[in-house]
What does this fold into?
Amino acid sequence: MNNVTDTMSGIETLNRRVREELKWLEFPARSWVPEREHQGGKVYDVIVIGGGMAGLTASGTLRRYGVLNHVVYDMAPRDREGPWVTYARMDTLRSPKTLTGPCLGIPVLTFRAWYEHRFGVQAWETLGLIPRTMWMEYLVWFRDVLELPVENEVLVQKINTADHGLLRLNILRNGKAEEVLTRKVVLATGRDGLGGAYMPDVIRTLPERLRAHSADMIDFAALKGKRVVVIGAGASAMDNAATALEQGAARVDVLIRRGDIPRINKFTGIGSQGVVQGFVNLPDEWKWRFLDATLSAQTPPPRPSVLRVSQHPNAFFHLNCQIEEIAMNGDVLELITSRGALTTDFIIAATGFNVDLAKRPELQVFSDRIRFWKDRFVPAPDNRCNGVINSELANSPDLGSAFEFQPKAEVICPDLRNIHCFCFPATLSHGKVSGDIPAISDGADRLVKGIVSHFFTEDCDIHFRNLKQFETPELVGDEWQDTPLSC
It folds into this structure.
């Protein structure tokens, strides 16, 4: 039997086992949410925006809890959802291969189960870190084996209010405008979920042909023989620098404003179920303290990512170096930095993402009503790095217990409770359970339990009426005989 046949046989065996175990778990659970229509049209219970890892995990959890009337929209073509085969450029994931990730707490849905059935137990034992593109293959299998309702190439243009507490979404499907109604929206939109790529003005004002953000689709082949500058010290900086070098860039300079590359991943040091389950219940001061300390230290790039760059003789690291000015001489960029002058042909800004609702047209109706941490919380002086309030934390959304948006003080907007922010900016409110692999199932469970609770309480009159009307007998009257008392 050849390797292709072995692989297919292994996956088919796993698929049968998944179906069997899900049947034992009564997965999906019986649908129980009362159906709704509006003016004769369909109303979804939940629309999930984003079909990447977070969106798939949310969808699987909705099915587990019997919320079957939902759909997942993703603007990307099938099998290209999320960053894994688009702008992510690392060779392998940072996370250990043993993390259970989006498996919903079900062993046969883990990456390990998929990998062992595809390649064998011995291959698992020798596997180091998970190849990035293989993680995408696993997510595609996860979606298909759970029969998750993902619809691709659907762009959500606007979320608006509708009658009877519903939300109306304007979508573009295959170039055709449509409107759909739903009770809940889950934003599973990743790192840039409430904004977009951040780029310093000195770089952003350059012509697009001469610069890019690390999250852009970059034509690295066009950089062959060119000089490239990469800004940043994180994983994406190293991955983009390495990709440019591997594609034949003549020279790559990595500019790092810090005096050293971060070396310790602080949050990893305290990773535990205590953090996963307990962070959300911390007082505000402690939430801020934990994340301010983490962000101030910064997450280091993985060692393999740095070595992937430094092995090239035409790669150069410059510490304590930040751009002050840029002049253009034709298509050549002349940089004035804190350490002197540098000439280059192209700049890649690996400068992260920021919250900026002006970049999210789908949220414009609600943008001036959403409450952020800066609207109600001012950290004490000893909770400020070098006396400065962390702007990333200050601009985090102040979310409720089910990741729902909340209104600013004196703003009345009950519809906000129906929009749930299940993406990276939720970290300050809920911890790292909505954007990274390790605790994504725990985050989805918290999200969906909150949605389920809201549905039941909102529809309690319907459920009570159903209780009163329920008349299916378990006893029919022939199971016993009334016997007269006797002395």
The radius of gyration is 26 Å. The longest helix spans residues 3-24. The first strand starts at residue 37 and ends at 38.
